[in-house]
Amino acid sequence: MEPLEPGKKLEKLWEELSSQINTDDPQQIVAFLDKITPADTALAVSRLNPEEQTRLLTLLNPEDAADVIADISDTQGADLIEELQPGHAAAILEELDSDHIVDILGELDEADASAIIDQMTPVEAEKARQFLTYAPDSAGGLMISEYLDFQSNQTVQDVLEELQNNREKYAEYDVQYLYVTDDNNHLQGVLRLRDLLFPKRTTKLASLMISNPFRVNANDSLLQLHNFFEEHNLFGVPVVNDDSRLLGIVLPEAVAEEKHNRSTDQFLGFSGIIGGEEFRSMPLLARSGRRLSWLSLNVVLNILAASVIAFYQDTLAAVIALAVFLPMVSDMSGCSGNQAVAVSMRELSLGLVRPTELLRVLAKEASLGVLNGLALGILLGAIAYVWKGNAFLGLVVGGALAVNTIVAVSLGGLIPLLLKRAKLDPALVSSPLLTTVTDMCGFFFVLSFASLVLEKL
Amino acid sequence: MEPLEPGKKLEKLWEELSSQINTDDPQQIVAFLDKITPADTALAVSRLNPEEQTRLLTLLNPEDAADVIADISDTQGADLIEELQPGHAAAILEELDSDHIVDILGELDEADASAIIDQMTPVEAEKARQFLTYAPDSAGGLMISEYLDFQSNQTVQDVLEELQNNREKYAEYDVQYLYVTDDNNHLQGVLRLRDLLFPKRTTKLASLMISNPFRVNANDSLLQLHNFFEEHNLFGVPVVNDDSRLLGIVLPEAVAEEKHNRSTDQFLGFSGIIGGEEFRSMPLLARSGRRLSWLSLNVVLNILAASVIAFYQDTLAAVIALAVFLPMVSDMSGCSGNQAVAVSMRELSLGLVRPTELLRVLAKEASLGVLNGLALGILLGAIAYVWKGNAFLGLVVGGALAVNTIVAVSLGGLIPLLLKRAKLDPALVSSPLLTTVTDMCGFFFVLSFASLVLEKL
């Protein structure tokens, strides 16, 4: 592989693309894009200003424009597609794989998506509408409609002729198998392409195919698909509806890619980036607004937590040293709790714990909470004692941290399971929910323990 | 696909495995494991107690034991392997793909790994030692040594005979290509397996092969491999050293899997789970100790931050209402900063920003910081003003949050780039580093602004 030299000719790259867009010569642009890697295309396109991006997609013919869309992330692709006339957008999207079409349409407003679908050819529009009814991480959402299917009474000759006559169309198909269906599109069997090489040309597919092949249901989950490909080393699996009608195929790469996307979303959600991905090439106001929408929820939660301090103001005024320990207790329990959240989310995604196993998780986390709570409580208590020479201060602070650590890890372990059962996204909600509760409890334990022994502090 | 029915017969599953282990009948155990999915195997094995797990691997023959290891995560696999006699561990590992062997050896202590390698056959041991010299996310770390290579002067007949004679060995090879090398193992060309079907048996490979095929260097990074497979729709790529000697092949699945693992590590590290994955089936003390090691670093950072409050105790004692706002200002800026961290880490991993582009990130984040800082500052300032009816309190609190938000998002955006340049892991270090600084600065801004207008508060 040629060394990709990241960063070396960075500025030139998008400046060159930008200047080529201004020459209005699509052939030159395509020649340039063909020369650089998909990653460099993504980088260069992301650094263009919005007018140049729209101009780029308008200048290119739909096929070349689709190649650009395929190189960049779905979020960025959707942003670009949104700016085009629906007819033009439809022409570009039709050049993509069907799961990719749906991924991009799924990122758009319903009205925008619908306007684009209306401009597609009736067959493609029908398919897009059908595909959009499936959850994006189900077999139906991950399948592509670019597969080969034939009827069981067709012959090897029929297949070879069809492949020959539509060579160009099939050349782009990323499939190794050929599916056999009956008149009503019920899945009957499967053949490997190479199985066509040896038999007589007049052989019927019915006698060559493997009957009753492996299949997944359109509603099967990502975890089920992942398990399927772990168990069966195949290059693809047919997707059927409840009536065993063939709808599409899922490739193992699509499953791996979606798993990767899920972890990314998890990470971004956990860090407070919601409503899709953010790139710094997006307009400032859009980035600011989306980040603020999550932060303003946080203000409310923070007020809830801080109101505990307001309630105990007199205690705090009497022993101002406590103010130093309030954020320490709440921060440290928050960290302990987030560790438990991460372990639960990981075990959930690997299928190593079921959302119903609350007692198991509680037992595992509470016992760990006692251990770590004691260790951290003794440490912080000792620090407080050494600093102020007051054993009661040490007891209050250390005791509060110990108790709050038990609360935090127990809750942290349970919250993802509870959210999963409530069909909420654990990545998004776990951390702010946990932090609010551990802050409130942390402040409460420190200040209420202190008010019990106020005259000794 | 048969419905997997998650959770339904959960308890029975591992209880049954456990009772079968106690019958000491390996054939019955294998029959049971063959019946359940890999995911259920992983779940059932993870719920056994350590003695049962070791017993399971000891009862099974190496090949069946290797199948179990392949179904569970590398971390868990390494934990199990560690408990076995090195000779037995070596026999099991030799049944795995070479990249998997290295993944598991890489999770062990160097001494343990070395003891196991010493028990391998000389050829496998040599290979393992060589493979371990490559970074786990480089082409060398992801490659497998299970590929077909022949000399350019061999004929089609030679290849077909070799394949025929070693049918069993090659049946497990997950490859579509055949590589052609010269006497010194220099990569010369590549052939698709199906290219062997049509030519005369006496044809030399040299005249059939595609010369100078695509290749990657053993030190190429995960991002480079990802870009390679994005650009070239291939089922594998040969890996060579600096002398163009063929070392192994990388499959696209391995790249997708490693990308997924990286995002998972990122997420776990970000949440304070370090030193490898944690599962609740691990011993309590090990889990507690590993979590504490990260938390104790956090204690030190928290003391640093809290010392700012200690320094300003008098100001705080004079205006106790400030205590309510201290955690709010530090929490909210921490959240804003973490959003910027997440965006930087995402852009880094997609190659959309280079670690050297500090000024670009600073400009993008600082401008967003001004916007969001103003919005949040005005909001919190208004809340403070309404609560206490003191405009100066509102100014102090709102001003501190505004300024600290600008600091937090700018730093949050830059930290991952700086850590990357310093070859530290951004996922692990970004968040605690950022939180400490934003806590310190938050406390400092609130209390120092307050001390400036103390008589008005």
UniProtKB/TrEMBL annotation, chains A, B:
CDD domains noted in UniProt? CBS_pair_Mg_transporter
Q: Which GO terms describe its cellular component?
A: plasma membrane
**Ribosomal protein among keywords:** no
Q: Which UniProt keywords apply?
A: CBS domain, Cell membrane, Magnesium, Membrane, Metal-binding, Transmembrane, Transmembrane helix, Transport
Q: Which InterPro entries match?
A: CBS_dom, CBS_dom_sf, Mg_transptr_MgtE_intracell_dom, MgtE_N_sf, MgtE_transporter, SLC41_membr_dom, SLC41_membr_dom_sf
Transmembrane ranges, per UniProt, are: 292-312, 366-387, 393-419, 431-454
Subcellular localization is given as: Cell membrane; Membrane
A Gene Ontology MF term for this entry? Answer: magnesium ion transmembrane transporter activity
UniProt keyword annotation of Lipid biosynthesis present = no
Q: Please give the family membership noted in the entry.
A: Belongs to the SLC41A transporter family.
Complex and partners: Homodimer.
**What's the stated role of this polypeptide?**
Acts as a magnesium transporter.
Record-given protein name: Magnesium transporter MgtE
Annotated source species? Desulfuromusa kysingii
**Which taxonomic lineage does the organism of this UniProt entry have?**
Bacteria, Pseudomonadati, Thermodesulfobacteriota, Desulfuromonadia, Desulfuromonadales
